[in-house]
């Protein structure tokens, strides 16, 4: 039976690309609010005996979760054989510890909700910090694919004489992978987070790289402070203005406007729909969906 994709609102473009890559059909979904703001869901395309993958990028997840859970429940109820979640951006991974008494460890609770709702989960470069693997908190087949090769290909095709730079020590492993594939040298900065919107960044000696085009590579751009601070540091060291290549465009309009004001060019993948999307993540997702939707693990 052919795979059926269901696109949640905002994710139609990626679902259409995936449908092409997978030779799958996008099911018709009617989703609206009743006057009392409760959610109405109707899957108009028959799903019985089909494997279903719901595409929902989970930036701003709170308003998305109930419609998503109802859609998954409806698909199951209507006879879908498997119901998976393609969340190219997976939220609720940052609060991975109780930092202060009484705090909720939302990454764990969100993982429980998703695990109870779906048979499998696929995402791109989840922001794992204290957890090493999604399997530490997710109790379903949880797979992730890496955007590093896509970022490297973009850099190689678009930037002459690049220097790949990671904003913090944590980024070393994947920044070095991007740089190797892009045939470029790399270095990482040292970042200290002083608050939600305040970071301090320091750099090693940059003088040997003054003739190179710096490319800042990060998994997430959110408030934009990390890359703005990093760009300031590079400018002070006499390097050209960096180009920023990131996986997930989590940033809001205000942060994007600030980046534009300071003249930073940002290129992101389409894991979150955004004006800066310039790298298509659909091929790496499609390959994984083809396995997961028919019950095959990505790791075995
Ligand atoms: C942090 O560990 C991440 O890799 C990013 O550097 C961070 O999330 C970016 O956040 P912001 O844009 O708010 O500085």
Give me the secondary-structure topology.
Blueprint: E1 4-7, H1 12-22, E2 25-26, E3 29-33, E4 39-43, E5 51-55, H2 62-77, E6 82-86, H3 106-117, E7 120-124, E8 141-145, H4 148-158, E9 162-166, H5 172-181, E10 186-188, E11 190-195, E12 198-202, E13 213-221, H6 225-236, E14 243-249, H7 253-261, E15 265-269, E16 277-279, H8 282-292
Parallel strand pairs: 1-2, 1-5, 5-6, 6-7, 7-8, 9-10, 9-13, 13-14, 14-15, 15-16
Antiparallel strand pairs: 3-4, 11-12
Helix pairs in contact: 1-8, 4-5
The protein binds ribose-5-phosphate.
Ribose-5-phosphate (R5P) binds next to strand 13 and helix 6.
Structure description:
It is a single chain. This protein is an alpha/beta fold and 300 residues long. Helix content is 31%, strand content 26%. The chain contains eight helices and 16 strands. Strands 2-1-5-6-7-8 form a six-stranded parallel beta sheet, with helices on both faces. Strands 10-9-13-14-15-16 form a six-stranded parallel beta sheet, sandwiched between helices. A hairpin with a 2-residue loop joins strand 11 and strand 12. Helix 1 crosses helix 8. The longest helix is centred in the first third of the chain and has 16 residues.
């Amino acid at each position: 039976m052919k795979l059926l994709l269901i696109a949640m609102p905002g994710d139609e473009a990626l679902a259409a690309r995936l449908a092409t890559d997978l030779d799958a059909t996008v099911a018709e979904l009617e989703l609206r609010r009743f006057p009392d703001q409760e959610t109405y869901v109707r899957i108009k395309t028959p799903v019985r005996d089909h494997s279903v993958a719901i595409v929902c990028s989970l930036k701003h997840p709170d308003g998305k979760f109930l419609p998503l859970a109802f859609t998954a429940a409806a698909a199951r109820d209507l006879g879908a054989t498997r119901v998976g979640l393609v969340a190219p951006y997976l939220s609720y991974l940052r609060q991975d510890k109780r930092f202060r008494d009484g705090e909720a460890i939302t990454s764990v609770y969100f993982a429980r909700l998703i695990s109870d709702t779906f048979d499998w989960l696929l995402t791109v470069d989840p922001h794992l910090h204290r957890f090493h693997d999604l399997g530490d908190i997710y109790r379903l087949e949880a797979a992730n694919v890496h955007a590093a090769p896509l970022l490297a290909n973009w850099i190689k095709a678009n930037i002459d004489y690049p220097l790949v730079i990671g904003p913090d020590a944590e980024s070393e492993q994947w920044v070095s992978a991007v740089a190797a594939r892009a045939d470029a040298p790399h270095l990482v900065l040292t970042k200290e987070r002083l608050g939600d919107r305040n970071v301090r960044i320091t750099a090693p000696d940059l003088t040997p790289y003054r003739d190179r085009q710096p490319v800042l590579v990060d998994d997430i751009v959110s408030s934009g402070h990390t890359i703005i601070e990093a760009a300031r540091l590079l400018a002070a060291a006499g390097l050209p203005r960096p180009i920023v290549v990131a996986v997930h465009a989590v940033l809001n309009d205000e942060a994007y406007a600030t980046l534009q004001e300071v003249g930073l060019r940002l290129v992101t993948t389409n894991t979150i729909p955004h004006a800066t999307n310039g790298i298509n993540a659909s091929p790496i997702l499609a390959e994984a969906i083809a396995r997961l939707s028919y019950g095959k693990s990505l790791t075995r």
